Amino acid sequence: MEPISVFxxxxxxxxxxxxxxxxxxxxxxxxxxxxxxPASRKPGFSKNKLKEYxxxxxxxxxxxxxxxxxxxxxxxxxxDNDYDYFFKEYRKHLKTQMSVVRDLYLNTIxxxxxxxxxxxxxxxxxxxxIVAEKIKEVDGNGLIIKHx
Length: 148
Description:
- By secondary structure, the protein is of the alpha/beta class.
- It contains six helices and five strands, in the order βαβαβαααβαβ.
């Protein structure tokens, strides 16, 4: 069986139209929002508006609050910009969410072209890269991760 690809994307510095166009370029049909709080000041990127807009393009929206970075970790990162600490602690948090990770892989990712979404433009600055890495560990699936 050929390995499955999963994408990640950040919406920072993107307009909703360009964001969706990018998803379409790669055939994404499931957008998995990994923000703990799926709200945004940026037009079109709050949960209900985003879900509605994606629906126009036959892209399913899935919100997984459990995979979001906990508020206290985000607040500490904003204060001290210590990404090493943030990612170390987020990995600990993610270990407590492995049933969600496994379910997401088995019930969503294997059935379509999926993309993890958060705000940060660069995957190196975002927890979504760790979510993708953890999904790759499920059953040694050989998942290929591509950042858009």
